[in-house]
Amino acid sequence: MPVVPMKDLLDRALAERYGVPAFNVVNDLTVEAVLAAAAEERSPVVLQTSVKTVRAYGRRQLFDVVATMARDVDVPVTLHLDHCPDRAVISDCLAGGWNSVLFDAHELDVAENLRQTTEVVAEAHARGAHVEGEIEGIQGVEDGIGSDDAPVVQTLEVAVDFIQRTGVDCFAPAIGNAHGQYTAAPVLDHQRVSDLVAATGVPMALHGGTGLSAEQFQDLIARGCAKVNISTALKQVFLQSSLEFLREAETRGKWDPPSFFAHQRTAVKDMAAEHMRTFGSSGRAW
């Protein structure tokens, strides 16, 4: 199936109260492994690319990898640019085939964020693409973007006004969640998700998913978190499985790259499938 609009995935997920997993892929192996899990689980899926990954691969080459692999998978797939503060990169990716972007302008004041996000929404919608917005930073640094400082949380009225006036298709609220590993069990403002969805009807995006319990995921999804980001878990399982294999290869004195790649793929695929089952997206493909 070709890459499909983000709004198609999230509107269905919000209506039926399941979460579409959004994995931050880092190379062609992780793209293929996540897609293989989605095909087996019959789950819609979002493939997210960081600005760092876009620059490392090159926009055209990265899109070609995703588009080629997605054509061989019969589940809905969306290609999303994650946490991008750079308008030039957003425009380049939209021109290059990405059908969703997160314009990360949380460091701007709300008025300027609103003004620029409205422009990004107009640009994206003109290309048939969609936009995730945010006005509060999610604590933690991911792929060189972000801050370890606790974000300033805006009032519900300010957040609702931002969503309605910009026309964003998805919104990422700060609810006590954080990128990276949690050092202690997070205290989450679940009610804020319910209030935002009730006021706007717009699906929410849950960032900082790695480390939350299945119960936390499922409660937030039931409240309207239709997109659930998973980045740290993918990176961890990819690198930890690599370390495990290489240590054994060194002990045995056997160096076999195809077996190495298969080991990495299995680890990433199993991780992705587990999240799909937890989020309730398994069996939701159309």
Automatic annotation (TrEMBL):
Keywords: Metal-binding, Zinc
Molecular function (Gene Ontology), one example: zinc ion binding
Residues binding Zn(2+) 1, per UniProt: H83, H179, H207
InterPro entries in the cross-refs: Aldolase_TIM, Class_II_FBP_aldolase, FBA_II
PROSITE patterns: ALDOLASE_CLASS_II_1
Protein name in UniProt: Class II fructose-bisphosphate aldolase
UniProt xrefs under Pfam families: F_bP_aldolase
GO biological process, one term: carbohydrate metabolic process
Lineage start: Bacteria, Bacillati, Actinomycetota, Actinomycetes, Geodermatophilales
